[in-house]
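Still learning folds. Look over my entry:

…
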Amino acid sequence: MNFKYSIIVAAVASALLAYQPASAQSLKEAVEQTIKTNPDVLIEADRRLQTDQTLRQANAGYLPKVDLGLGIGTEHSDNITTRNTKNHIGEHDWRSMGRTESSLTLTQMLYDGSATYSEVQRQTARQESAAYKVAGTSEQIGLRAVEAYLEVLRRQAELGLIQENLAATERIYGQIKIRATSGVGRKADQEQAEARLALSQANVESAQANLRESLITYKRIVGIAPADLTKPGEPEGVPADADGAVQTALANHPIIKSAQADIDATK
C-alpha cells in the first residue's frame, strides 16, 4: 500500500470512529480500550510528562537561588606559618586544628546572555514535540485496532457465507446420491458431488482458521477478546481524492508537527 492510500485508510478509520453507534464493544470502544492500555502509547505519555518537569526546571532559572553551606571537621595545614612555629627539633611541619564554617548565599539571575531564555524555549519545543508524538502514536495504534476490528467482522461474514455454501452443497449432494443409488443418476455425478462437498468442507475449516487468527490478532492489539462486534456505519468526511488526503495529512499529521517541533528545539 503506497503512501497516499495509507493516508486514505487512516482518514476512513477516523470517520468510522466518529459515526460508530453505541453498542456492546463498538469500534469506538475497541479503539479507546487499545489507546488506554497499549504500552507504546503509555510510554509516549510518560515521556510527555517528563518534558513537563524538564520545562519547569528550565523556568527555575528565572527564580532566585539560595545556597546553604555547612562544614565541620579536622584540618591539617602544612605551610610557611606552621613550619615557622616549630618549637623543637623533630616536631612536624604541619599542624592539626578543628574547623567549622557556614555560608548562606542568595543569588538572582539578571542577565546570562539569553541562556535561560533559550533553554526555556528549547524545552517548550521538546514538550510540544512529545505531545504530538503521543497523538501520532495513538493514531497509529488506533488504526491497527480499527483494522483488527474490521478483519474480525470480515472473517465472520466470510465464514457465514462459506457455511451457507456448505449447507447448499450438502443438500445437492444428498439429492444426487439418492438419484445415483436409485439408478436414475450416474455414478460419476455422485463422485463429482462428493469432491465438491469435500472442497466445501475444507473451505469451512480454512475460514475457521482464518477467523481464529483474526481473533488472536484482535486480542493482541486491543488487549481483550472480541465480543458482539457490530458493523460500523458508513464513513463520512473522507477526502475526495488521494492528493487531497495527502495535503491534509502534510498540514495536520502529528508526526510531521512533532518533527517540526524537534527542529525548533534544535534551533
